[in-house]
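Need a sequence for this fold. Nothing fancy.
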């Protein structure tokens, strides 16, 4: 702490979650003097992070990936097979982002300026650049919720059948018919352990975690899977986070934000970790070169894609249960390159526009019109 307060660093990163830790890890390897500030910088991360394998940066250590599958299925209710690798990051993946050479400051950040971090419990930390990577702290507005249980692979086998993993199962065995929909996510997290999770992809308000637990029990019972005996404290996952962190213009925030709170979360899927890792070196290169990191992180194409995806979330929120299922049936019937553009191409404005136009074409005429109307309305958040 005294060393951090005594000198001016090149960069001070606030928040030691995946995005902040990755930035500190890569910045120090680029020769920068880095301070990383967090109230509990070495705490374990219990959340289950997954990503499309092709989104993960080449510099990520192999030990960061706990399990990977070559394809994943969607039921909407028709089966779609997505021949795209899907990886689950290990529980200790943040530990692979080693902090050798980083000045780690244990403290709670108060007021942040572009060159200074005030701590509530210690002297300030000064730096040429401050980056706020504290994550999506708000739960207001549209949110994603989920309730999951980790099952032994043998117990989860009836849910997987011949599939390596299931990204979304919208079939209604959970009893949501006539209510706000949710889907089942079934993904092996290791060779012997599978996460089964009932998920509300997006809601305003979202389905409550308690209701999702009830739906999960109903769904698994319909498949002959008994889950009750596995619901121990260390085998349960509860999820609730806002989908619109960063707001409409995250590139205007000062100090610069990075990660889920900085607009790098996909507002229609909730995925953010792979994108944050993927764009970390862009931030580092800007820091090394003395360039505006917000401009580097948010080129014109990325700003346009961000706006379109927020409108895509707006469309999704207007749909009832059956229309939501029909939406995803149409989405995953699109050519793979269109799916990839919307899900993963953060700065490919023409590709995302083409995906949205193709989606309207693949949907039933009435659904396509509803999607288009939702996309043209300005989001309230």
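Here you go.
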């Amino acid at each position: 702490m005294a060393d951090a307060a005594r000198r001016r660093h090149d960069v001070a990163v606030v928040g030691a979650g995946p995005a902040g830790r990755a930035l500190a890890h890569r910045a120090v390897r680029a020769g920068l003097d880095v301070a990383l500030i967090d109230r509990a910088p070495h705490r374990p991360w219990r959340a289950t992070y997954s990503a499309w394998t092709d989104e993960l940066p080449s510099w990520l250590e192999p030990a960061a990936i706990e399990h990977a599958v070559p394809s994943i299925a969607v039921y909407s209710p028709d089966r779609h097979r997505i021949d795209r690798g899907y990886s689950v990051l290990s529980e200790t993946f943040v530990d692979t982002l080693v902090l050798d050479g980083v000045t780690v400051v244990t403290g709670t950040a108060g007021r942040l300026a572009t060159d200074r971090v005030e701590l509530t419990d210690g002297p300030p930390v000064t730096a040429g650049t401050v980056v706020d990577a504290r994550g999506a702290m708000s739960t207001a507005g549209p949110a994603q919720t989920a309730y999951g249980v980790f099952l032994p692979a043998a117990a989860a086998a009836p849910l997987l059948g011949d599939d390596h993993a299931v990204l979304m199962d919208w079939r209604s065995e959970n009893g949501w018919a006539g209510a706000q929909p949710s889907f089942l996510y079934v993904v092996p997290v290791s060779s012997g352990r599978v996460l089964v999770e009932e998920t509300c992809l997006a809601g305003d308000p979202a389905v409550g975690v308690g209701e999702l637990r009830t739906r999960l029990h109903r769904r698994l019972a319909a498949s002959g899977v008994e889950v009750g005996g596995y619901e121990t404290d260390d085998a349960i996952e509860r999820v609730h986070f806002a989908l619109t962190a960063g707001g409409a213009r995250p590139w205007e925030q000062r100090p610069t934000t990075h990660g889920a709170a900085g607009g790098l979360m996909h507002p229609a899927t909730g995925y953010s970790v792979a994108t944050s890792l993927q764009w970390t070196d862009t931030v580092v290169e800007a820091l090394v070169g003395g360039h505006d990191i917000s401009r580097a992180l948010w080129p014109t194409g990325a700003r346009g894609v961000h706006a379109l995806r927020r409108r895509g979330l707006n469309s999704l929120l207007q749909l009832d249960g059956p229309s939501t299922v029909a939406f995803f049936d149409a989405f995953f019937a699109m050519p793979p390159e269109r799916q990839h553009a919307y899900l993963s191409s953060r700065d490919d404005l023409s590709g995302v526009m083409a995906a949205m136009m193709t989606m309207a074409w693949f949907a039933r005429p009435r659904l396509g019109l509803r999607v288009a109307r939702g996309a043209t309305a300005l989001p309230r958040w």
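For context: The chain has a mean pLDDT of 91.
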